Amino acid sequence: MNEKLSVLPQYIVPQHWLSRLAGLVAESTVPAVKNTFIQQFIKVYGIDMNEALESDPTAYNTFNDFFTRALKKGVRSITEQGIACPADGSVSQIGEISNDLIFQAKGHYYRIDELLGGRSSNAELFKNGSFATIYLSPKDYHRVHIPFAGTLKEMTYVPGKLFSVNGKTANQVPGLFARNERVVCLFDTAMGPMVVVLVGAMIVASVETTWAGLVTPHRRHIFVNDYSGTDQQPITFERGDEMGRFKLGSTAIVLFPEGKVKWDKQLGEGSPVKMGQQIASLL
Q: Which of 87, 99, 169, 223 could make an SS bond with 164 (beta carbons 3.0 to 4.6 A apart)?
């Protein structure tokens, strides 16, 4: 009951207005503003700045620049085999898709086509497949990297709510990840199609990709960018290449077709993970 009550205000507050306001503050270049927020954030969340390419907190132009900071070369190792974890964080859920249902938490499921913005033809590719949901907390490194080498086929922006995506909210909000604003990235790979979904959340100012920059549609409706045309240069990635970033915390979800991957047996709900570590082997 306490958990349910703690989540209830999220249904009431103006989610997008609060997120836009947070975005304005996070983009402030005023030293007294951005340095205060950065220093407090480091203190509260215990950020290890020794991992950052720029270790001086005051050197960042904005809070968002600090939040999406790059890491020093060699701080994260990219596995040379199997599936690489797309981000630092913890496992929210991991396992197999039951026909077209993905497990969220505590008896909550959501459908593949709902997650993919109603793209039923794409959803068919992942029936009875495999999924992993990685939660990025505020203290984590917030760049997302591709789990397996591939070529971008299409990107779909799906408008939605901006509920928090922490464990409490996942337990209490039905269809959370299929309700929140998100960017769905479909790739062609040597083992077949792969999806990486970047899910927005409360106070997330924006989502960026390395090929499209800031994903900020003028109108809040579903749109699809097709990158598979023969008249354009293919957008390709090697395993572990950066593909996007969150300005404040959120979730990355990866989907694979049936019979393609086997998750590491040691991974389960709440398991801490680091970007680049092997989380699955290929079948």
A: 169
